[in-house]
Amino acid sequence: MTENRGRLIVFSAPSGCGKGTMLKYILRDGRFYCSVSATTRKPRNSERDGVNYYFLEREDFLNKVENGEFLEYAEYCGNFYGTLLSEVEERLEKGVNVILEIEVQGAMKIRELRPDALFVFVAPPSLGELERRLRKRGTETDDVIAQRIAKASEEIALAENYDYIIVNAELSKAVEDFFTIVRAESLRAKNSAYITDEVIKNA
Fold it and tell me: Which domains are seen in the chain, by residue range?
């Protein structure tokens, strides 16, 4: 990574872990941009097209897949989700850190395609607390909640494939942990060759 290029950050969590709330605080920092994913899922009442997701018809989504317009895509709970290439590279070149808020299946595809990316997994304090949060949202049926809890168990089992795990028990601490991770990564020797170049140049 060069001095001026942004970092690609893969940010995953089971549904209901509070990653959306975390991102709201993280994105107050202008150095970060959250890529807007495309999905075939129907929007919830509070969601807006182009802000929360690009809501696409299934046929339109699959046409974009065929045209090579996605960095990655995956099917999750009966709907497709994907990251459009147009959402990523242009911003990275401008020095913006691009966050991909994607599920584990998609993240593992990114791991193969972009091993330079930083992978952060957000976990709940417990599955019991996760269920409580999902029920509090009041947007899913009991069957869907049970499906999401089962899926969360599978996703948490794969968290070891990420670079870092944040347990979101307390929002402010979880956000602080995120910024600490990004700062530490920027100082790793393999990511900071430009610093040593500057030291030598100014000797």
Answer: 8-201 (3.40.50.300)
